[in-house]
Every structure is written in C-alpha cells, then in structure tokens.
Amino acid sequence: MSRRYLVCVGIAIILLAALLFFNTMRHSEALTVSVTTTVEPEVTPSAVPTLIPAPSASLEKEAESAQVSVYQYDSDSLRVSVLYTHVLSSETYLTSIWMQDPGKQIRKATSTFHENLGTAPELAALLPEAKVIINGSGYVSPIYPEIPDNYPGTSADYYYTALGSVTVTDGTVLRCLSGVPYYGLTLQADGLHLHVGDDPDAVLAAAPSQTWSFYELCPMIQDGEIILDTSWAFARRKAIRTIISLLPDGTYLLLSTESMTLVDAAQYLQDTYHPVWTYDLDGGPSSALFVHSDAANAPHLVFGARQPIVDVMGFYDLEDLPPAP
To answer: E strands along 36-181, which residues?
Structure first.
C-alpha cells in the first residue's frame, strides 16, 4: 500500500470517530431534555387537620401501654386535653375540660322537638366554634319506643324527644311531667348538676338553661359514691359508652369508649379520679366526640358515628361564645 493511501484511511477513521462522538452527545442531550420535560411538578397537599381522625394500628399499639395526645387547647378560660388510650382493654378517649365559667361556656344544640332527629354532624355544625362536642340525651322514637312506666300517655306522645321528665333548651321549658322524678343533668349558672329522682318543680326552681337525660338508672356516682344498680342488665353489658363526670377540682371528664360495662366504668372512674358525680349519656351508635379543627374551622369527628341523635353538648372558649339564646 502507498503511503498516501494509508494517510487517507487514517483521516477517514478520525472523521468517522468524530462523527460518532457528536451523534452520541446529541442523543444524550436529547434523552436528558426528554427526561427533564416529562417530570411532573411537585404537588403541594391541601391543608388537613392536625388531629387523629381514627386510631391507626401504630396508635393502638402505642396506647396499649401509654396515653397518646390527640388534641390540646389552652387559654385563660378553657383548657382541653383529649387522650387516646386503652382502659380495661377497651379503646378509649379521655377528655378533660376545665372552664372558667361553665354556666356560660357549655351550650346545647338539639333536633327539632317532636319533629325529627338530626345526625351528630348536623347538630355539631350548629355549634361551630365549640372546642369539644359530645352526644347528649337518649331519646324516644319508633325504633327506640320504650318509655318509663310512670310517664303519662303512650310512646308515640314522646317520639323524637329526649328522655327525662324535664326538658329545657336555651331556657325554654319544653316538658315538665308533674310528679315524675327527674334523672339527668341540668346546666345552671355555676355549671352542670346531677339530679337523681328530683321533683320536676324543684329542678325548674333552679332556673336551668339546659337539660340532658337518659334512662332513670344512668346516674353512676353521686357525692363521691357509686350508686349504679349493678344488677341492671344494661349496666352489665359491654357497649359503646359516652360518660361524663365532674371531678373535685371542677374539671369535667368525658369518657368515650368502644366496649365497656357501666359497672366496670364506674369502678375505674371511682378508683382513678374520685369524681363528685358521674352520669351515663346516650351511647351505642349515638356516641360521638368532636373537637374543633382550625384547618377546617369546623367540628371534626374523632370518635363515634354519624347517626341521628336528639341533642349534643358543646364546650366553648369564652372568647368564641355565640350570642346568648
């Protein structure tokens, strides 16, 4: 081969190598641009409440040996703590509430008397600024028609109303069954009071602004002593419960639990908190516990169902009180 021929071949090889190199670089750049342009932009999630809407598996495991904080609120007029835990092997929310002026800071929302029942979220929505809301009275309806033997009339006369011989809402007396003892709660100027077989006229003489009531045997502790009838079948049955207590320091304690007898609940509360009084509110599918969600600016369901109920009880900061009814 001639020297000129070898030189030409060498030049051709160099040019071919250069061409391959530039093609590779262009292909690489094209791939890079393609990847870059097809990456989706990061999506910022919308705001959600910083609450625990339902117990997760990890939360349940942690609560087996400890109390887990679910909600806290602290101001000069209201202090709230909601803890998730296990009490007697039952999933439980313990809510402690201290109020500067409970007679003003506790409010009630109710279904239309004698007409229908609103769901728990519908009634809670009527108390939008309340920091805590729980279900309240038991009621009479075609599904739950039982009334005490000493009530005059028939069950149908009490449909879609709260149990109890006295019913007061926002200061208006809706029912007073003369001579029928009252078992339940009243809201007076200094806070909630427990009544165990009191005369209706005496109950109204204290000028209560609200009442909440359930079965006659639902008072559990009075004056620091257990008075629950432990032979009552309802008290010995495990069920979903909403129970409220007044503690000696003026704090209210709410116990919302998944499966507990009233007998066990009364003993637990007596041994652990020594309440002045304890009362069993409506339970089962009527149980509901709401806390205020700042993100949604509305009540947030923490425990219970969304069933029709007759009324709810709300706890407010003094600064958030709606106008007096």
So the answer is: 68-74, 78-87, 90-99, 106-110, 118-119, 132-135, 139-140, 161-162, 166-169, 172-176
